[in-house]
Design brief:
- There is one protein chain.
- The chain is mainly α.
- The chain has one domain (2-47).
- It is 63% helix and 0% strand.
- It is built from 3 helices and no strands.
- The protein has helices at 8-14, 20-27, 32-47.
- Helix 1 (8-14) crosses helix 2.
- The longest helix is centred in the last third of the chain and has 16 residues, at 32-47.
- The chain starts with 7 loop residues before the first helix and ends with a helix.
Length: 49
């Protein structure tokens, strides 16, 4: 769900967790592709297109 940009709150509810903290504890790692996407977005903000 994380790699599909599903909001953490929605994913947590779907998984049946009582709080978002539980989802973050179990699944909170960020996949490499998401990290790369974030880095590219930061680069665009700092350096422009």
């Amino acid at each position: 769900m994380t790699s599909s940009n599903v909001p953490m709150k929605a994913a947590s509810e779907r998984l049946g967790h009582s709080t978002i903290v539980i989802k973050n504890d179990f699944y909170g790692h960020i996949e490499r592709s998401i990290q790369e996407d974030i880095a590219e977005k930061i680069d665009k903000v700092i350096w422009g297109d």
